[in-house]
Amino acid sequence: MCTGCVQKQYPDRGHTCLENGSYLMNFLGCANCHQRDFVLISDRTMVNEDEDEDEEEIVTYLHMCKNCDHVIARQEYTFTVVDDYQEYTMLCMLCGKAEDSISVLPDDPRQTAPLF
């Protein structure tokens, strides 16, 4: 992947996990052709690790320069179900790194205030 195309490598995105798209605020421009244009998504693959339960899904794709097909970064997004929580992760030199966890229950047990 290309460190010359991004302002910051793997910026911390907190809980923002994206299954597709590009974080253009971090895109300096193509280090190969020196153009700052749209970023294409290429070679997108989706894999379900557990076909019966749909408990893990991995999406990968490449961010590429629209003008010269230079590979800017590779993105990996994962979705898993662990106990009563949906877990999301994202790792990409352009879009950053992030993790999130959401309860599948109507009321998240982690969000309840203690009574005492």
Automatic annotation (TrEMBL):
Asked whether the UniProt record includes Iron-sulfur among its keywords, one would answer: no
One annotated GO biological process: positive regulation of DNA-templated transcription
Provide any one GO MF term from the record. Answer: zinc ion binding
UniProt entry keywords in alphabetical sequence: Activator, Developmental protein, Metal-binding, Transcription, Transcription regulation, Zinc
**Entry similarity comment:** Belongs to the Churchill family.
Q: What is this protein called?
A: Protein Churchill
Name its species.
Sinocyclocheilus grahami
